[in-house]
Design a protein that fits this description.
Blueprint: E1 2-7, E2 13-19, H1 28-31, E3 70-72, E4 76-82, E5 85-91, E6 99-106, E7 111-120, E8 124-133, E9 136-146, E10 151-158, E11 163-170, E12 178-188, H2 190-204, E13 206-214, E14 225-235, E15 239-241, H3 251-258, E16 263-265, H4 272-275, H5 285-296, E17 300-308, H6 323-341, E18 347-352, H7 359-364, H8 368-379, E19 385-389, H9 403-416, E20 422-426, E21 429-430, H10 435-446, E22 452-459, H11 465-478, E23 482-487, H12 510-521, E24 527-530, E25 536-542, E26 544-552, E27 555-566, E28 573-577
Parallel strand pairs: 15-23, 16-17, 17-18, 18-19, 19-20, 20-22, 21-22, 22-23
Antiparallel strand pairs: 1-27, 2-13, 2-28, 3-6, 4-5, 5-12, 6-11, 7-10, 7-12, 8-9, 8-11, 13-25, 14-24, 14-26, 26-27
Helix pairs in contact: 2-11, 6-8, 8-9, 9-10, 11-12
């Protein structure tokens, strides 16, 4: 973590060392089976070794012939070898499910991390892993496999029953062969899964601070009193909630919101159908007012959204336009909204739900989306441009928006906008969360090195809504590749989109209590103590901005602010506040 100092007064010389070192763990955490966050998004000549040594998979590298494996359906299978690498090849497929399989025995309420390396005989095709049990089918994940190189499929699921199961693979194109190697299925208990989260929070969301007090001559000051207080609404990890224009005239809503969140997204006020109800008559009044409110309270804003590919959510006058007229209208929209708010936002959702819908592509061609991003980058190159999509981490059954499909679209965009700052936007509209799949999907997307945000997090109404919200927030916050979260719970008198955090009097619902409890949990409490004989005082703190006060009998009180600006620095950083 890199830090800068805002000095208030010069009364005592201070030396501050912020150490980004792995913390030691004790008890269960130290003994828990570790989770492997490794994921590859490159197509390799040879597959890597199976994660976790293959876990409970028998003969994971196919080095023992076909032991443990059998044909599934009418497929023919055989062991093959290329350049010293052995694998299983599935051919003579007549149905999508014709493949290989292995019999397994699953444990109830156990989370399973799955991975395999896949190749197809020609072209590129989506290949999915499926687990069949007495209670139904679990989709373990999918990958867009290529010919002549190996692609990693990473996924997972939670078993809802104890009993026998069978792993198999499927692909809609029955004319291709499916090649499989380096298969792994690793079980984790819920306690082990939680320990991974706790360890990651300590490792990637916290840092060890070491402060040394010295006098004007550079001599250590022992028994100096150090007090460290995290600044209100200055956490290192942004967690926010959507708002809408109702907040502008509702003081209780304002107080409730501003006391909790550091980032927001406007629910509808910046969308095209809100700002240009009739052609050529733009009205940004509500968006401007919300942005002014956010600035007043030092709340960062994500721009949402420039374009929405769902045909249901377009300005009414757009449907009758010719392709040429539509192209001009889209160009004007991108330039208008983005130039208006350039330099005032932290990100843009440029295209919304592009993997599920294709309103603009159907009218303007397959290169419409890359062209949108190229223009967006030309208008505002200062912040990341996100592709915002749902079901990429929520639902393994949705083949349209798998991490592999998301990456495929991302590469298409990057092919035309190589210099653009891109970001991965995951809407995160959950039903029952599949935490193993969610984590694996974040692993895969995180391999891009791009910023990842959960942009519209909510949970379907039900008796377990609050419980599921807590599980998802914990999984997202603890994942080392996630950079921020926005909860999709903008308040309206008639109710929220799918999930509210408060009632109409702004008393917390169970979901609001979950958010509050975690926000408190992920903040550092005030720390106070005395420096040792060498003038040192140590504390472990969550990333964020802190006010540090020091007093010593030999001098007046001194205080300064430590501002977190870069949490990726791994070597200790030393600086001095001089008198």
């Amino acid at each position: 973590m890199e830090i800068s100092v805002l000095q208030k007064n010069n009364l005592i010389t201070m030396l501050l060392i912020l150490v980004c070192a792995d913390l030691l763990f004790s008890g269960f955490e130290a003994n828990a089976l570790p989770y492997d966050y490794t994921a590859s998004i490159e197509c390799l000549e040879t597959p890597l070794k199976p994660l976790h040594g293959g876990g409970i998979i028998l003969n994971p590298e196919l080095n023992m012939g076909l032991k443990g494996w059998q044909a599934f359906g009418d497929a023919k299978i055989e062991q093959r070898e290329l350049a010293g690498n052995k694998f299983v090849a599935v051919h003579a497929r007549n149905r999508p499910t014709d493949s290989i399989s292995q019999k397994l025995y699953l444990q109830q309420e156990t989370l399973y991390s799955f991975s395999a390396w896949i190749q197809v005989s020609e072209g590129n095709e989506a290949v999915a892993a499926v687990f069949k049990s007495g209670t139904g089918f679990k989709h373990g994940g999918a990958v867009v496999a290529e010919s002549k190189c190996w692609s990693m499929l990473k996924g997972g699921f939670t078993s809802d029953a104890t009993g026998p199961a069978e792993l198999y693979f499927e692909s809609k194109n029955t004319s291709i062969e499916i090649w499989v190697d380096s298969i792994s299925l690793q079980p984790f208990t819920t306690e082990e899964w939680a320990s991974h989260q706790d360890q990651n929070i300590k490792k990637v969301r916290k840092a060890k601070v070491r402060i040394q007090a010295i006098d004007k001559l550079g001599n250590p000051l022992s028994n100096a009193t150090i007090t460290i207080q995290q600044q209100q609404n200055k956490p290192g990890f942004p967690i926010g909630c959507a708002i809408n224009k109702n907040i502008l005239t509702n003081t209780p809503y304002q107080k409730w919101f501003t006391s909790r969140f550091t980032v927001t997204t406007f629910e509808d006020e910046m969308k095209w159908y809100s700002t240009e109800v009739s052609p050529g008559h733009e009205d940004y009044t509500s968006a401007d007012a919300l942005l002014s409110f956010a600035k007043q309270h030092n709340i960062a804003v994500r721009g949402h959204n420039v374009l929405w590919d769902d045909p249901k959510y377009q300005p009414g006058w757009l449907y009758s336009l010719s392709p040429a007229e539509l192209s001009n209208a889209v160009h004007k929209r991108i330039v208008s909204v983005m130039s208006r708010y350039t330099g005032q936002l932290i990100a843009w959702d440029v295209v919304n739900e592009n993997l599920h819908f294709s309103f603009f592509e159907n009218k303007l061609g397959d290169q419409a989306t890359p062209n949108f991003y190229r223009l967006a980058h030309a208008v505002d190159w200062s912040v990341p441009l996100f592709l915002n999509e749902y079901n990429t981490i929520e639902d393994s059954r949705d083949g349209a928006a798998t991490p592999a499909k998301y990456l495929q679209k991302l590469r298409q965009i990057q092919g035309l906008t190589r210099n653009a700052k891109m970001g991965i936007g995951l809407e995160s509209h959950f039903g029952t969360p599949n935490l193993a799949y969610m984590r694996a999907s974040l692993d895969t997307l995180g391999a891009t090195g791009l910023p990842i945000w959960l942009t519209e997090l909510d949970v379907l109404s039900g008796p377990n809504q609050a419980k599921y919200l807590e599980q998802i927030l914990m999984e997202a916050y603890s994942h080392p590749k996630v950079d921020g979260i926005v909860i999709w719970a903008a308040w309206k008198p008639q109710g929220c989109y799918r999930m509210c955090l408060t009632d109409n009097n702004f008393n917390n619902l169970a979901t609001g209590n979950v958010a509050d409890n975690l926000l408190r949990q992920w903040r550092s409490r005030a720390v106070s103590g005395l420096t040792d004989t060498r003038g040192f005082f140590e504390a472990t703190l969550f990333h964020g901005d802190y006010e540090i006060n020091i007093t010593h009998p030999s001098s007046s009180a001194h205080s300064f602010v430590v501002v977190s600006t870069n949490e990726s620095l791994q070597s200790p950083l030393t600086f001095q506040v001089s008198v």
